[in-house]
Queue: 2 jobs
Job 1
Amino acid sequence: MSSNPTGESLPYVILRDVLDTDSAFLDELNAPEVGGEWDSFDDSPDQLLRGEDFGGGKQVVQLDDETLVGSVSWVHVPYGPNAKSLAWSIGITIHPDYRGRHFGASAQRTLAKQLLAGSEANRVQADTDPKNLPEQRSLLRAGFTLEGVARKAQWRCGNWHDRLVFSVLRHDLFG
Ligand SMILES: CC(C)(COP(=O)(O)OP(=O)(O)OC[C@H]1O[C@@H](n2cnc3c(N)ncnc32)[C@H](O)[C@@H]1OP(=O)(O)O)[C@@H](O)C(=O)NCCC(=O)NCCS
């Protein structure tokens, strides 16, 4: 267990690198019916941008007993021409069988700490659809703050969509 800024306990999750043996689980997570309407795109898988091309990566989320419950990903977002101004943008999918148990919030907080501990960045951000209430609840529980709206920033399902932008700063996590 760890806790968030309001002192609420978050369940213990482990983030670990992806193994070949995770491919069936990851394929399941990538299915449109699992990602849901806010995490499914018109593009075919081979047309999607590769996180690795943006300083990014992916890990799986597992429990203490090695049960796989989801995945997290991250990419760089530049806020200036210098390395220190590279922020991180994160994404997450928790398998439907394991939703509603705050594994998402715990994984988001753990990932934010991990990314800041391993880089000079000052900021981890996440954006989501204004109607994706579980993701908003999860980010707030993880200690992120709502900053505002990135207007019509995402092309999805034949339309441009607003994105709510949340962030957590180094100071928020490490004082
Ligand atoms: C968003 C997501 C990562 C949240 O993960 P999670 O582990 O379920 O998060 P939490 O357990 O903290 O749940 C968040 C809130 O949604 C509710 N909720 C969401 N799905 C639920 C479900 N299937 N059963 C019960 N409650 C659910 C929870 O009750 C909780 O509300 P609360 O704050 O009032 O307790 C997960 O729902 C998911 O993977 N969604 C699909 C992919 C997606 O939208 N990713 C983000 C794209 S920007």
Note: The domain at 2-174 is CATH 3.40.630.30 (Aminopeptidase).
Job 2
Amino acid sequence: MGSPRLVAVFLAGLLAALGMSCSSDTEVSGSSSKPETVATSDASLDAASVTTDTSIASLPTVVVTYSILASVVRKLLEDVADVVTVIPDGQDPHDFEPSPRDVERIINADFVVFNGLDLEEGLDDVLVNARNSGVPVFAIAEHVTTLDIVDVNDHSDHGHVHPGADSSHGHDDHDHSEDPHVWLSPHTIREALPALARAASDALGVDLTLAEESLDDQLAALDSELSELFSTVEKCQLVTGHNELGYFAQRYGCTVIAAILSSPSTNAEESAGNMEFVIDVIRSHDARVVFTSLGTNPAVAARVAEQAGAQLVEINTHYLGASESYISFIRTLGTTIATSLR
Ligand SMILES: [Zn+2]
């Protein structure tokens, strides 16, 4: 898969099999015996085989779905691969839809890393196709201890009555009953690191022993730093935009007491009944902060905070933003939460 020509041939075959080739099916069929014809007869396929940045054309391409995970992978593969991100920084991974170019990138990649558990719902089909076609595809969530999705707004055992409370997991059509937000705990990312390093090493033919050790040390130090930070927070009660801080809360002794969207995805609607419920929970728990993030209606979040007499604090949970790396992203998130709650 390393050679651009082989990649073009492979892509041509795959697109034909998927019925996605628009003009040259006859040339594409039987492509394995006529690579030259295929590679030069279809401009779109030629374009797909060209690496965008010629200065790093000699490095294998590793495609990672979202920016936070890409930062982790980049640390591991520094100098041995060109790590590119599919979902633009600042865009919500829960509702991202890929362009044909994104599909090409994934199909052409030497190694693909994604989150899993339906975080990247819009990329599911292309990731399955890539995996079935022999592209090495690695899902972080398949290598960590996952948390079950719980309805954080179901406080029925504490005397709160949530109008939309439902004993089934989640409020959407997910097949999964596990929380996808694994990256929000560095400890959870550490769990996946040995398998990730092994898979990357196999896919790229490189020795990552030292890089893995170094990254593991950094993640362990970050985890300790956060544990220490949260040991100074007396009552870590979290009210969030959607149900996103489960892994973080579990690791650092916090409790998610309510979410404006009780769903583990942002693909849900705020309801008036739920708003009243969340306001009631904030008041009765004497919670002082509402944390909001990408994917939550800012006006709704502001109204909830105001009516509950709580401070509204914006946090960044689903993309790197101004953070230079995963380490600084988690550090900023932890510091913002801890400082707001003190
Ligand atoms: Zn989310």
Note: The chain has a mean pLDDT of 84.
